[in-house]
Amino acid sequence: MTPRRPSARIDLPAFAVQAALDALPDTIAVVDAAGVIVAVNSAWTDFMLDNGGTPETCSVGANYLSACDRAQGACADEGPPVARGLRAVLSGEQASFSLEYPCHSPTEQRWYRVQIRPFASGPHRYATVLHENVTQDRLTEIRSSDLDAEVAQSVRQQTAGLRHENEELDAFIGAVSHDLRAPVRHLSGFLGVLRKRAAERLNDEDRRLLDVMDASATRLDHMINELLGLSRASQTALRVQPVNLAQVVLRAWANLAPETQGREIEWVAGDLPVVEGDPDLLRLAFENLLSNAIKYTAGRETAHIEVGAREDEDSWVVFVQDDGVGFDPRYTHRLFGPFQRLHHEKDFQGVGLGLVNVKRIIERHGGEVWAESHPGDGATFSLRFPKPLSS
Amino acid sequence: MPDLTFPEARHVPGGDAPLQVLLVDDDPTDLELAAIVFGEHDLTLRTFGTGAAALTHLHAADPLPDVVVLDVNMPHLSGFEVLSAIRSEQRLRHLPVVMLSTSGEDRDVSRAYDLLASSYLVKEQDFLAFEQQVQGFVQFWNTCLFPGRRTG
Question: Taking CB atoms and an 8 Å limit, are B125 and A185 in contact across chains?
Protein backbone atom coordinates (compact mmCIF):
# COMPACT_ATOMS: atom_id res chain seq x y z
CA MET A 1 0.00 0.00 0.00
CA THR A 2 1.19 3.41 -0.86
CA PRO A 3 0.52 5.87 1.98
CA ARG A 4 -1.47 8.83 0.78
CA ARG A 5 0.42 12.05 0.73
CA PRO A 6 -1.74 14.73 2.29
CA SER A 7 -0.32 17.28 -0.16
CA ALA A 8 -1.88 15.39 -3.07
CA ARG A 9 -5.37 15.86 -1.74
CA ILE A 10 -7.57 18.45 -3.18
CA ASP A 11 -10.48 19.50 -1.07
CA LEU A 12 -13.34 19.90 -3.49
CA PRO A 13 -16.43 21.73 -2.45
CA ALA A 14 -19.30 19.37 -1.59
CA PHE A 15 -21.36 20.41 -4.64
CA ALA A 16 -18.47 19.47 -6.91
CA VAL A 17 -18.15 16.06 -5.28
CA GLN A 18 -21.88 15.54 -5.65
CA ALA A 19 -21.77 16.63 -9.30
CA ALA A 20 -18.94 14.16 -9.95
CA LEU A 21 -20.91 11.36 -8.31
CA ASP A 22 -24.06 12.26 -10.25
CA ALA A 23 -22.13 12.09 -13.50
CA LEU A 24 -21.52 8.37 -13.00
CA PRO A 25 -23.93 5.94 -14.63
CA ASP A 26 -23.53 3.41 -11.85
CA THR A 27 -25.42 3.71 -8.61
CA ILE A 28 -23.13 4.80 -5.78
CA ALA A 29 -23.64 5.37 -2.11
CA VAL A 30 -21.11 6.19 0.60
CA VAL A 31 -21.76 4.69 4.01
CA ASP A 32 -20.05 5.35 7.30
CA ALA A 33 -18.67 2.81 9.72
CA ALA A 34 -22.14 2.15 11.13
CA GLY A 35 -23.63 1.62 7.71
CA VAL A 36 -25.45 4.92 7.60
CA ILE A 37 -25.69 6.38 4.12
CA VAL A 38 -23.78 9.67 3.98
CA ALA A 39 -23.93 10.32 0.26
CA VAL A 40 -25.71 8.95 -2.81
CA ASN A 41 -25.60 9.88 -6.48
CA SER A 42 -28.59 10.56 -8.68
CA ALA A 43 -28.33 7.13 -10.36
CA TRP A 44 -28.77 5.62 -6.90
CA THR A 45 -31.82 7.73 -6.15
CA ASP A 46 -33.37 7.03 -9.56
CA PHE A 47 -32.81 3.33 -9.17
CA MET A 48 -34.30 3.35 -5.71
CA LEU A 49 -37.41 5.21 -6.83
CA ASP A 50 -37.79 3.08 -9.97
CA ASN A 51 -37.64 -0.10 -8.00
CA GLY A 52 -40.13 0.62 -5.24
CA GLY A 53 -37.56 1.82 -2.71
CA THR A 54 -38.35 4.57 -0.28
CA PRO A 55 -36.23 7.50 0.93
CA GLU A 56 -36.59 6.08 4.46
CA THR A 57 -34.57 3.00 3.58
CA CYS A 58 -32.20 4.15 0.85
CA SER A 59 -31.53 7.87 1.12
CA VAL A 60 -28.88 9.77 2.98
CA GLY A 61 -29.36 9.21 6.70
CA ALA A 62 -30.86 5.73 6.32
CA ASN A 63 -28.91 2.75 7.59
CA TYR A 64 -27.99 0.69 4.56
CA LEU A 65 -27.07 -2.32 6.67
CA SER A 66 -30.50 -2.55 8.25
CA ALA A 67 -32.11 -1.82 4.85
CA CYS A 68 -30.23 -4.81 3.44
CA ASP A 69 -31.09 -6.99 6.43
CA ARG A 70 -34.75 -6.23 5.99
CA ALA A 71 -34.74 -6.13 2.20
CA GLN A 72 -38.07 -6.77 0.51
CA GLY A 73 -39.01 -7.09 -3.14
CA ALA A 74 -37.23 -8.05 -6.31
CA CYS A 75 -33.64 -8.33 -5.13
CA ALA A 76 -34.37 -9.16 -1.49
CA ASP A 77 -32.36 -12.38 -1.61
CA GLU A 78 -29.16 -10.44 -2.13
CA GLY A 79 -29.83 -8.19 0.91
CA PRO A 80 -28.36 -10.38 3.67
CA PRO A 81 -25.15 -11.38 1.83
CA VAL A 82 -24.55 -7.73 0.87
CA ALA A 83 -25.07 -6.71 4.49
CA ARG A 84 -22.55 -9.35 5.60
CA GLY A 85 -20.07 -8.17 3.00
CA LEU A 86 -20.48 -4.54 3.96
CA ARG A 87 -20.00 -5.34 7.67
CA ALA A 88 -16.87 -7.33 6.85
CA VAL A 89 -15.43 -4.49 4.79
CA LEU A 90 -16.32 -1.82 7.35
CA SER A 91 -14.79 -3.85 10.17
CA GLY A 92 -11.63 -4.41 8.14
CA GLU A 93 -12.10 -8.16 8.02
CA GLN A 94 -12.27 -8.05 4.27
CA ALA A 95 -10.40 -5.72 1.93
CA SER A 96 -13.36 -5.48 -0.43
CA PHE A 97 -16.53 -7.26 -1.39
CA SER A 98 -18.11 -8.01 -4.68
CA LEU A 99 -21.22 -9.96 -5.61
CA GLU A 100 -23.09 -10.39 -8.83
CA TYR A 101 -26.84 -10.83 -8.48
CA PRO A 102 -29.95 -10.97 -10.60
CA CYS A 103 -32.47 -8.24 -10.06
CA HIS A 104 -35.14 -8.82 -12.65
CA SER A 105 -37.95 -6.32 -12.98
CA PRO A 106 -41.33 -7.47 -14.21
CA THR A 107 -40.42 -6.20 -17.68
CA GLU A 108 -36.77 -7.01 -18.12
CA GLN A 109 -33.97 -9.29 -17.07
CA ARG A 110 -31.23 -7.42 -15.18
CA TRP A 111 -28.09 -8.36 -13.41
CA TYR A 112 -26.02 -6.17 -11.10
CA ARG A 113 -22.66 -6.42 -9.54
CA VAL A 114 -22.24 -4.75 -6.16
CA GLN A 115 -18.74 -3.66 -5.24
CA ILE A 116 -17.93 -2.44 -1.77
CA ARG A 117 -14.59 -0.77 -1.12
CA PRO A 118 -13.45 0.87 2.09
CA PHE A 119 -11.74 4.18 2.56
CA ALA A 120 -10.76 6.18 5.58
CA SER A 121 -10.99 9.83 6.38
CA GLY A 122 -8.95 10.59 9.44
CA PRO A 123 -10.03 8.17 12.10
CA HIS A 124 -13.33 7.45 10.33
CA ARG A 125 -13.91 4.47 8.17
CA TYR A 126 -16.25 4.58 5.22
CA ALA A 127 -17.20 2.43 2.29
CA THR A 128 -18.41 3.08 -1.23
CA VAL A 129 -21.24 0.84 -2.33
CA LEU A 130 -21.44 0.67 -6.10
CA HIS A 131 -24.12 -1.28 -7.99
CA GLU A 132 -23.09 -1.71 -11.57
CA ASN A 133 -25.52 -2.90 -14.20
CA VAL A 134 -23.85 -5.95 -15.78
CA THR A 135 -26.92 -7.10 -17.72
CA GLN A 136 -25.19 -6.76 -21.09
CA ASP A 137 -22.20 -8.84 -19.97
CA ARG A 138 -24.45 -11.52 -18.56
CA LEU A 139 -26.68 -11.64 -21.62
CA THR A 140 -23.60 -11.98 -23.81
CA GLU A 141 -22.33 -14.79 -21.60
CA ILE A 142 -25.69 -16.50 -21.62
CA ARG A 143 -25.97 -16.16 -25.37
CA SER A 144 -22.51 -17.56 -25.91
CA SER A 145 -23.09 -20.46 -23.54
CA ASP A 146 -26.45 -21.05 -25.22
CA LEU A 147 -24.60 -20.92 -28.50
CA ASP A 148 -22.01 -23.39 -27.19
CA ALA A 149 -24.77 -25.69 -26.03
CA GLU A 150 -26.55 -25.26 -29.34
CA VAL A 151 -23.39 -26.01 -31.30
CA ALA A 152 -22.64 -29.02 -29.09
CA GLN A 153 -26.20 -30.23 -29.50
CA SER A 154 -26.12 -29.82 -33.25
CA VAL A 155 -22.72 -31.53 -33.48
CA ARG A 156 -24.16 -34.41 -31.47
CA GLN A 157 -27.20 -34.55 -33.71
CA GLN A 158 -25.11 -34.40 -36.86
CA THR A 159 -22.75 -37.08 -35.57
CA ALA A 160 -25.66 -39.31 -34.67
CA GLY A 161 -27.19 -38.56 -38.06
CA LEU A 162 -23.97 -39.39 -39.87
CA ARG A 163 -23.54 -42.55 -37.89
CA HIS A 164 -27.10 -43.53 -38.71
CA GLU A 165 -26.57 -42.73 -42.39
CA ASN A 166 -23.35 -44.75 -42.37
CA GLU A 167 -25.12 -47.69 -40.82
CA GLU A 168 -27.92 -47.42 -43.33
CA LEU A 169 -25.42 -47.20 -46.13
CA ASP A 170 -23.61 -50.28 -44.87
CA ALA A 171 -26.90 -52.15 -44.58
CA PHE A 172 -27.78 -50.98 -48.08
CA ILE A 173 -24.44 -52.13 -49.46
CA GLY A 174 -24.99 -55.47 -47.75
CA ALA A 175 -28.51 -55.90 -49.13
CA VAL A 176 -27.62 -54.76 -52.63
CA SER A 177 -24.53 -56.95 -52.85
CA HIS A 178 -26.58 -59.85 -51.65
CA ASP A 179 -29.17 -59.24 -54.37
CA LEU A 180 -26.47 -58.70 -56.99
CA ARG A 181 -25.10 -62.17 -56.44
CA ALA A 182 -28.07 -63.93 -58.04
CA PRO A 183 -27.81 -62.29 -61.50
CA VAL A 184 -24.05 -62.83 -61.51
CA ARG A 185 -24.59 -66.47 -60.65
CA HIS A 186 -27.10 -66.73 -63.50
CA LEU A 187 -24.68 -65.09 -65.94
CA SER A 188 -21.89 -67.43 -65.00
CA GLY A 189 -24.25 -70.40 -64.95
CA PHE A 190 -25.86 -69.91 -68.33
CA LEU A 191 -22.54 -68.99 -69.91
CA GLY A 192 -21.39 -72.39 -68.70
CA VAL A 193 -24.50 -74.09 -70.08
CA LEU A 194 -24.14 -72.28 -73.39
CA ARG A 195 -20.47 -73.19 -73.63
CA LYS A 196 -21.38 -76.86 -73.19
CA ARG A 197 -24.37 -76.97 -75.49
CA ALA A 198 -22.71 -75.00 -78.25
CA ALA A 199 -19.29 -76.62 -77.82
CA GLU A 200 -19.22 -78.12 -81.28
CA ARG A 201 -20.37 -74.98 -83.04
CA LEU A 202 -17.90 -72.62 -81.32
CA ASN A 203 -14.66 -71.53 -82.91
CA ASP A 204 -11.64 -70.19 -81.05
CA GLU A 205 -12.78 -66.59 -81.26
CA ASP A 206 -16.23 -67.50 -79.89
CA ARG A 207 -14.60 -69.30 -77.02
CA ARG A 208 -12.36 -66.30 -76.35
CA LEU A 209 -15.45 -64.09 -76.13
CA LEU A 210 -17.06 -66.51 -73.70
CA ASP A 211 -13.84 -66.45 -71.67
CA VAL A 212 -13.99 -62.66 -71.50
CA MET A 213 -17.59 -62.80 -70.32
CA ASP A 214 -16.71 -65.45 -67.78
CA ALA A 215 -13.79 -63.40 -66.47
CA SER A 216 -16.04 -60.35 -66.16
CA ALA A 217 -18.67 -62.31 -64.28
CA THR A 218 -15.99 -63.67 -61.97
CA ARG A 219 -14.58 -60.21 -61.40
CA LEU A 220 -18.03 -58.83 -60.69
CA ASP A 221 -18.55 -61.64 -58.23
CA HIS A 222 -15.29 -60.80 -56.45
CA MET A 223 -16.29 -57.17 -56.20
CA ILE A 224 -19.63 -58.10 -54.73
CA ASN A 225 -17.94 -60.41 -52.26
CA GLU A 226 -15.59 -57.67 -51.18
CA LEU A 227 -18.50 -55.26 -50.80
CA LEU A 228 -20.25 -57.82 -48.66
CA GLY A 229 -17.06 -58.22 -46.66
CA LEU A 230 -16.83 -54.47 -46.24
CA SER A 231 -20.40 -54.23 -45.09
CA ARG A 232 -19.70 -57.07 -42.67
CA ALA A 233 -16.49 -55.41 -41.41
CA SER A 234 -18.48 -52.24 -40.79
CA GLN A 235 -21.63 -53.74 -39.36
CA THR A 236 -20.52 -56.70 -37.32
CA ALA A 237 -20.63 -55.81 -33.66
CA LEU A 238 -17.08 -55.63 -32.30
CA ARG A 239 -16.27 -58.38 -29.84
CA VAL A 240 -13.51 -56.58 -28.02
CA GLN A 241 -11.04 -58.55 -25.98
CA PRO A 242 -7.27 -58.58 -25.44
CA VAL A 243 -5.83 -59.77 -28.73
CA ASN A 244 -2.32 -61.05 -29.18
CA LEU A 245 -1.43 -59.57 -32.55
CA ALA A 246 1.39 -62.08 -33.00
CA GLN A 247 -1.18 -64.88 -33.08
CA VAL A 248 -3.50 -62.90 -35.31
CA VAL A 249 -0.72 -62.26 -37.82
CA LEU A 250 0.38 -65.90 -37.81
CA ARG A 251 -3.15 -67.06 -38.45
CA ALA A 252 -3.61 -64.51 -41.23
CA TRP A 253 -0.35 -65.67 -42.79
CA ALA A 254 -1.43 -69.31 -42.56
CA ASN A 255 -4.74 -68.47 -44.24
CA LEU A 256 -2.85 -66.97 -47.15
CA ALA A 257 -1.02 -70.21 -47.87
CA PRO A 258 -2.68 -70.57 -51.30
CA GLU A 259 -1.23 -67.21 -52.32
CA THR A 260 2.28 -67.98 -51.14
CA GLN A 261 2.50 -71.33 -52.89
CA GLY A 262 5.42 -71.50 -55.28
CA ARG A 263 6.81 -68.26 -53.95
CA GLU A 264 10.02 -67.69 -52.10
CA ILE A 265 9.25 -65.30 -49.30
CA GLU A 266 11.47 -64.35 -46.42
CA TRP A 267 8.92 -63.69 -43.77
CA VAL A 268 9.75 -61.93 -40.53
CA ALA A 269 7.34 -61.37 -37.70
CA GLY A 270 8.81 -59.26 -34.91
CA ASP A 271 7.48 -58.83 -31.39
CA LEU A 272 3.90 -57.71 -31.57
CA PRO A 273 1.81 -56.23 -28.78
CA VAL A 274 -1.43 -57.34 -27.22
CA VAL A 275 -4.14 -54.82 -28.10
CA GLU A 276 -7.83 -54.47 -27.34
CA GLY A 277 -9.87 -55.54 -30.32
CA ASP A 278 -11.95 -58.01 -32.25
CA PRO A 279 -9.69 -60.93 -33.20
CA ASP A 280 -11.65 -61.89 -36.33
CA LEU A 281 -11.79 -58.40 -37.78
CA LEU A 282 -8.13 -57.78 -36.97
CA ARG A 283 -7.19 -61.02 -38.69
CA LEU A 284 -9.17 -59.85 -41.72
CA ALA A 285 -7.23 -56.56 -41.69
CA PHE A 286 -3.87 -58.34 -41.58
CA GLU A 287 -4.97 -60.81 -44.25
CA ASN A 288 -5.66 -57.86 -46.51
CA LEU A 289 -2.33 -56.21 -45.78
CA LEU A 290 -0.30 -59.40 -46.09
CA SER A 291 -2.15 -60.42 -49.24
CA ASN A 292 -1.19 -57.07 -50.75
CA ALA A 293 2.41 -57.57 -49.66
CA ILE A 294 2.45 -61.01 -51.28
CA LYS A 295 0.81 -59.69 -54.44
CA TYR A 296 3.06 -56.70 -54.94
CA THR A 297 6.29 -58.60 -54.30
CA ALA A 298 5.43 -61.14 -57.00
CA GLY A 299 8.26 -59.85 -59.16
CA ARG A 300 10.94 -60.58 -56.55
CA GLU A 301 12.93 -63.74 -56.71
CA THR A 302 12.97 -63.72 -52.92
CA ALA A 303 10.43 -61.38 -51.40
CA HIS A 304 10.85 -59.86 -47.96
CA ILE A 305 7.78 -59.23 -45.87
CA GLU A 306 8.09 -58.03 -42.32
CA VAL A 307 5.55 -57.32 -39.62
CA GLY A 308 6.83 -55.43 -36.60
CA ALA A 309 5.81 -52.92 -33.97
CA ARG A 310 7.11 -49.93 -32.13
CA GLU A 311 5.78 -48.45 -28.94
CA ASP A 312 4.70 -44.84 -28.66
CA GLU A 313 3.61 -43.08 -25.51
CA ASP A 314 -0.07 -43.96 -25.72
CA SER A 315 -0.23 -46.22 -28.71
CA TRP A 316 1.35 -49.08 -30.61
CA VAL A 317 2.33 -48.72 -34.22
CA VAL A 318 2.31 -52.02 -36.09
CA PHE A 319 3.75 -52.03 -39.58
CA VAL A 320 3.64 -54.38 -42.52
CA GLN A 321 6.58 -53.82 -44.81
CA ASP A 322 7.42 -55.39 -48.13
CA ASP A 323 10.06 -54.93 -50.79
CA GLY A 324 7.61 -55.06 -53.67
CA VAL A 325 6.87 -52.52 -56.37
CA GLY A 326 5.49 -49.98 -53.90
CA PHE A 327 3.09 -47.35 -55.19
CA ASP A 328 3.34 -43.87 -56.60
CA PRO A 329 3.50 -41.58 -53.53
CA ARG A 330 1.56 -38.95 -55.46
CA TYR A 331 -1.52 -41.12 -55.09
CA THR A 332 -1.14 -42.02 -51.42
CA HIS A 333 -4.38 -40.14 -50.68
CA ARG A 334 -6.30 -42.46 -53.00
CA LEU A 335 -4.93 -45.62 -51.49
CA PHE A 336 -7.62 -46.12 -48.88
CA GLY A 337 -10.57 -45.10 -51.06
CA PRO A 338 -13.01 -47.70 -52.40
CA PHE A 339 -12.31 -49.16 -55.85
CA GLN A 340 -9.11 -47.17 -56.17
CA ARG A 341 -6.43 -49.01 -58.02
CA LEU A 342 -2.92 -47.65 -58.31
CA HIS A 343 -1.78 -50.44 -60.59
CA HIS A 344 -3.07 -51.87 -63.82
CA GLU A 345 -5.38 -54.83 -63.55
CA LYS A 346 -3.15 -56.73 -65.98
CA ASP A 347 -0.18 -56.30 -63.61
CA PHE A 348 -1.92 -56.96 -60.32
CA GLN A 349 -5.40 -58.35 -59.92
CA GLY A 350 -7.77 -57.02 -57.35
CA VAL A 351 -10.88 -54.97 -57.05
CA GLY A 352 -9.58 -52.27 -54.74
CA LEU A 353 -11.52 -52.81 -51.56
CA GLY A 354 -8.88 -54.49 -49.42
CA LEU A 355 -7.41 -51.34 -47.96
CA VAL A 356 -10.85 -49.81 -47.44
CA ASN A 357 -11.60 -52.81 -45.30
CA VAL A 358 -8.36 -52.36 -43.38
CA LYS A 359 -9.13 -48.70 -42.79
CA ARG A 360 -12.69 -49.40 -41.62
CA ILE A 361 -11.54 -52.10 -39.26
CA ILE A 362 -8.68 -50.13 -37.74
CA GLU A 363 -10.77 -47.00 -37.39
CA ARG A 364 -13.46 -49.00 -35.63
CA HIS A 365 -10.71 -49.96 -33.17
CA GLY A 366 -10.00 -46.28 -32.52
CA GLY A 367 -6.79 -46.46 -34.51
CA GLU A 368 -5.49 -45.05 -37.76
CA VAL A 369 -3.81 -46.35 -40.88
CA TRP A 370 -1.29 -44.80 -43.18
CA ALA A 371 1.09 -45.90 -45.87
CA GLU A 372 4.51 -44.97 -47.17
CA SER A 373 5.95 -46.03 -50.45
CA HIS A 374 9.45 -46.51 -51.64
CA PRO A 375 8.61 -46.92 -55.34
CA GLY A 376 10.42 -49.89 -56.76
CA ASP A 377 11.57 -50.89 -53.32
CA GLY A 378 8.41 -51.63 -51.40
CA ALA A 379 5.72 -50.14 -49.24
CA THR A 380 5.09 -49.85 -45.53
CA PHE A 381 1.60 -49.86 -44.11
CA SER A 382 1.28 -48.71 -40.51
CA LEU A 383 -1.54 -49.26 -38.09
CA ARG A 384 -1.80 -47.30 -34.89
CA PHE A 385 -3.57 -49.01 -31.99
CA PRO A 386 -4.40 -46.96 -28.91
CA LYS A 387 -3.08 -48.56 -25.75
CA PRO A 388 -5.75 -49.74 -23.33
CA LEU A 389 -6.47 -47.04 -20.75
CA SER A 390 -5.59 -49.31 -17.86
CA SER A 391 -1.95 -49.79 -18.82
CA MET B 1 -44.17 -71.73 -61.96
CA PRO B 2 -43.20 -74.54 -64.35
CA ASP B 3 -43.04 -77.91 -62.71
CA LEU B 4 -39.84 -79.19 -64.25
CA THR B 5 -39.89 -82.89 -63.80
CA PHE B 6 -37.21 -84.76 -65.63
CA PRO B 7 -37.88 -88.15 -67.11
CA GLU B 8 -36.58 -90.95 -65.01
CA ALA B 9 -33.43 -92.42 -66.40
CA ARG B 10 -32.84 -95.69 -64.70
CA HIS B 11 -29.44 -97.21 -64.70
CA VAL B 12 -28.98 -97.96 -61.03
CA PRO B 13 -27.09 -101.25 -60.67
CA GLY B 14 -29.56 -102.72 -58.27
CA GLY B 15 -32.41 -101.74 -60.53
CA ASP B 16 -33.76 -99.36 -57.89
CA ALA B 17 -35.56 -96.14 -58.75
CA PRO B 18 -33.21 -93.21 -59.11
CA LEU B 19 -32.81 -90.59 -56.41
CA GLN B 20 -35.91 -88.42 -55.99
CA VAL B 21 -35.07 -84.77 -55.28
CA LEU B 22 -37.56 -82.02 -54.50
CA LEU B 23 -36.13 -78.51 -54.97
CA VAL B 24 -37.80 -75.28 -53.85
CA ASP B 25 -36.48 -71.89 -55.00
CA ASP B 26 -38.41 -68.71 -55.68
CA ASP B 27 -35.98 -67.57 -58.38
CA PRO B 28 -37.07 -69.11 -61.70
CA THR B 29 -33.63 -68.57 -63.25
CA ASP B 30 -31.96 -70.42 -60.41
CA LEU B 31 -34.55 -73.18 -60.78
CA GLU B 32 -33.91 -73.49 -64.49
CA LEU B 33 -30.15 -73.58 -63.98
CA ALA B 34 -30.51 -76.15 -61.20
CA ALA B 35 -32.82 -78.23 -63.40
CA ILE B 36 -30.18 -78.24 -66.15
CA VAL B 37 -27.33 -79.17 -63.85
CA PHE B 38 -29.29 -81.76 -61.84
CA GLY B 39 -30.51 -83.01 -65.21
CA GLU B 40 -26.96 -84.08 -66.02
CA HIS B 41 -27.40 -86.79 -63.40
CA ASP B 42 -29.47 -89.87 -63.06
CA LEU B 43 -32.24 -88.72 -60.77
CA THR B 44 -35.76 -87.37 -60.68
CA LEU B 45 -36.03 -83.68 -59.89
CA ARG B 46 -39.24 -81.95 -59.01
CA THR B 47 -39.04 -78.16 -58.65
CA PHE B 48 -41.36 -75.68 -56.98
CA GLY B 49 -41.29 -71.89 -56.99
CA THR B 50 -42.96 -71.48 -53.60
CA GLY B 51 -42.83 -73.24 -50.28
CA ALA B 52 -46.64 -73.46 -50.25
CA ALA B 53 -46.72 -75.34 -53.57
CA ALA B 54 -44.02 -77.71 -52.34
CA LEU B 55 -45.89 -78.43 -49.08
CA THR B 56 -49.14 -79.06 -50.98
CA HIS B 57 -47.27 -81.51 -53.18
CA LEU B 58 -45.64 -83.23 -50.19
CA HIS B 59 -48.98 -83.69 -48.42
CA ALA B 60 -50.27 -85.69 -51.35
CA ALA B 61 -47.01 -87.27 -52.50
CA ASP B 62 -46.64 -91.02 -52.38
CA PRO B 63 -43.90 -92.01 -52.43
CA LEU B 64 -42.21 -89.04 -50.80
CA PRO B 65 -39.01 -87.67 -52.34
CA ASP B 66 -35.71 -88.92 -50.93
CA VAL B 67 -34.26 -85.46 -50.29
CA VAL B 68 -35.75 -81.96 -50.09
CA VAL B 69 -33.62 -78.96 -51.04
CA LEU B 70 -34.86 -75.58 -49.80
CA ASP B 71 -33.67 -72.13 -50.80
CA VAL B 72 -33.41 -70.07 -47.61
CA ASN B 73 -34.46 -66.64 -48.84
CA MET B 74 -37.93 -66.84 -50.29
CA PRO B 75 -40.83 -64.41 -49.96
CA HIS B 76 -43.97 -65.51 -48.10
CA LEU B 77 -42.84 -68.88 -46.75
CA SER B 78 -39.10 -68.78 -46.23
CA GLY B 79 -36.95 -71.89 -46.41
CA PHE B 80 -36.90 -71.94 -42.60
CA GLU B 81 -40.67 -71.87 -42.42
CA VAL B 82 -41.01 -74.69 -44.95
CA LEU B 83 -38.42 -76.64 -42.95
CA SER B 84 -40.40 -76.08 -39.72
CA ALA B 85 -43.61 -77.18 -41.42
CA ILE B 86 -41.92 -80.38 -42.63
CA ARG B 87 -40.48 -81.12 -39.18
CA SER B 88 -43.84 -80.57 -37.50
CA GLU B 89 -45.69 -83.15 -39.58
CA GLN B 90 -45.58 -86.75 -38.56
CA ARG B 91 -45.55 -88.06 -42.13
CA LEU B 92 -42.82 -85.66 -43.34
CA ARG B 93 -40.59 -85.10 -40.35
CA HIS B 94 -38.06 -87.81 -41.25
CA LEU B 95 -37.29 -86.27 -44.66
CA PRO B 96 -33.69 -85.20 -45.18
CA VAL B 97 -33.82 -81.44 -45.84
CA VAL B 98 -30.81 -79.64 -47.28
CA MET B 99 -30.81 -75.85 -47.01
CA LEU B 100 -29.40 -74.01 -50.00
CA SER B 101 -28.52 -70.37 -49.57
CA THR B 102 -26.63 -67.61 -51.32
CA SER B 103 -24.92 -66.67 -48.09
CA GLY B 104 -23.27 -68.60 -45.31
CA GLU B 105 -24.17 -66.10 -42.59
CA ASP B 106 -23.55 -67.67 -39.21
CA ARG B 107 -26.98 -66.86 -37.91
CA ASP B 108 -28.68 -68.49 -40.93
CA VAL B 109 -26.56 -71.61 -40.57
CA SER B 110 -27.29 -71.87 -36.84
CA ARG B 111 -30.98 -71.29 -37.39
CA ALA B 112 -31.10 -74.00 -40.03
CA TYR B 113 -29.58 -76.62 -37.73
CA ASP B 114 -31.70 -75.43 -34.79
CA LEU B 115 -34.71 -76.21 -36.97
CA LEU B 116 -33.22 -79.65 -37.67
CA ALA B 117 -31.96 -79.15 -41.20
CA SER B 118 -29.94 -82.13 -42.44
CA SER B 119 -27.24 -79.94 -43.92
CA TYR B 120 -26.55 -76.48 -45.24
CA LEU B 121 -25.02 -75.62 -48.60
CA VAL B 122 -24.02 -72.24 -50.02
CA LYS B 123 -24.88 -71.91 -53.71
CA GLU B 124 -21.67 -71.81 -55.70
CA GLN B 125 -21.47 -68.65 -57.77
CA ASP B 126 -19.22 -70.08 -60.44
CA PHE B 127 -20.82 -72.48 -62.91
CA LEU B 128 -18.12 -75.13 -62.82
CA ALA B 129 -18.07 -75.01 -59.05
CA PHE B 130 -21.86 -75.31 -59.01
CA GLU B 131 -21.71 -78.35 -61.30
CA GLN B 132 -19.19 -79.95 -58.92
CA GLN B 133 -21.37 -79.05 -55.96
CA VAL B 134 -24.40 -80.75 -57.53
CA GLN B 135 -22.26 -83.72 -58.48
CA GLY B 136 -21.08 -84.06 -54.89
CA PHE B 137 -24.64 -83.75 -53.64
CA VAL B 138 -25.91 -86.43 -56.01
CA GLN B 139 -23.01 -88.77 -55.24
CA PHE B 140 -23.56 -88.43 -51.52
CA TRP B 141 -27.31 -89.00 -51.53
CA ASN B 142 -26.94 -91.85 -54.00
CA THR B 143 -24.85 -93.71 -51.44
CA CYS B 144 -27.51 -93.23 -48.78
CA LEU B 145 -30.12 -95.76 -47.84
CA PHE B 146 -33.69 -94.64 -47.40
CA PRO B 147 -36.49 -96.36 -45.54
CA GLY B 148 -38.39 -98.73 -47.78
CA ARG B 149 -36.00 -98.35 -50.71
CA ARG B 150 -32.76 -99.79 -51.97
CA THR B 151 -32.71 -102.61 -49.60
CA GLY B 152 -30.18 -104.13 -51.96
Answer: yes
